[in-house]
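Exam revision sheet. Question 4 asks you to relate a sequence to its structure. Input first:
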Amino acid sequence: MDRPPKMTPHQVKEALRRRDTGEPAQEIAQSHNVSHGLISRLAA
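Answer key, structure tokens:
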């Protein structure tokens, strides 16, 4: 079985929108309780 995703598709869209406005990945990650590396990988 696969691991469940850490973020829902809606959360991913919101995180990318916030990243596009210039908000730091660390702050976005804290609000979603995930690592800042995950946020960086989403943006890549």
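Marking note for examiners. The mean pLDDT is 94.
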